[in-house]
Write a structure and sequence with these properties.
mainly alpha; about 270 residues; 3 domains; globular; 3-stranded antiparallel sheet; about 5% strand
Length: about 270
């Protein structure tokens, strides 16, 4: 917070500009943990410059990565994804598939590194090898998501079991209350002294202080916040995803009729039906 305040003070300095690159979840955490009675977050929002990567930019990142790895070792000619990957995967262009599951430069690079690891002794990836890479990448992304949010939700991965083997899109009301109660009871028994917000809510459900219905709304709001799912609050709206330009959603806006859309990057790890 001291860094943010200092950068804000530098606005008055004409010959210098301080730029801070920060994930949105981190700045939200800073504001939440340092907020005092007179704090007004909207005063800082005019200073934001949200960043969003377009598909063409990410494909360029992928091609630069491929060219750097391949041309340096094997050829002087320029090499792109068209030389190493199949043109189509799952009946769509392979670049569309990759953009669906990896929408940040580091994710693109992580996915391609996974492709390399499963394609040992192959000059070009085939569909079966790409399918293997997709599964390994999906599992690593879910683990990375748990690590990324461990400060706020230490047992996040345990709670994602509520999404396993579901359809890509489903209504929250389709989750049985008894399944929620059993999950919360199991977590409360296994971690009686567990810390973190999700653990607290699970104990409340186990102690009959919080209803399973209320817990479902809370956990889906958290899953939305971390990018695990998208939400369709009304039938006339398109699905909403949290990103650097996305809308925030409170638990109060979520109901049993809200549709949940699981992010494609996590389909294989969660056994999601396409």
């Amino acid at each position: 917070m001291a860094l943010i305040l200092t950068a804000k003070d530098f606005i008055q300095v004409k010959n210098a500009k301080i730029i801070i690159a920060l994930r949105r979840d981190l700045i939200e955490r800073v504001f939440r943990l340092t907020r005092d009675s007179g704090f007004q977050e909207e005063k800082y929002q005019s200073l934001y410059l949200p960043l969003k990567w377009e598909k063409a930019q990410l494909v360029d990142v992928l091609d630069l990565r491929i060219d750097a790895l391949v041309s340096r070792r094997y050829t002087k000619a320029k090499v792109t994804h068209k030389d190493l990957l199949p043109k189509h995967y799952k009946k769509i262009l392979v670049t569309d598939f990759i953009y669906n599951i990896a929408q940040r430069p580091r994710d693109i690079i992580d996915f391609f590194n996974t492709c390399i690891s499963v394609a040992t002794n192959s000059s070009k990836l085939k569909v079966n090898e790409l399918r293997m890479a997709e599964g390994e990448y999906s599992r690593s992304r879910l683990r990375a998501l748990g690590d990324e949010w461990s400060a706020d939700y230490p047992s996040l991965i345990d709670f994602t079991s509520i999404l396993k083997k579901r359809s890509r899109s489903f209504k929250i009301s389709s989750i049985e209350n008894k399944d929620v109660e059993e999950l919360c009871l199991d977590i409360a028994i296994d971690n009686p002294g567990g810390r973190g917000l999700l653990q607290e809510y699970a104990h409340k459900v186990a102690d009959a202080v919080l209803t399973a219905h209320g817990f479902k709304n809370i956990i889906m709001q958290i899953f939305y916040r971390i990018g695990l799912i998208g939400l369709k609050l009304n039938t006339y709206e398109s699905e909403s995803w949290v990103d650097e330009l996305g809308r925030s959603v409170s638990a109060a806006e979520i109901s049993g009729d809200t549709s949940v859309v699981i992010h494609p990057a996590f389909h294989r790890a969660l056994g999601i039906t396409p």
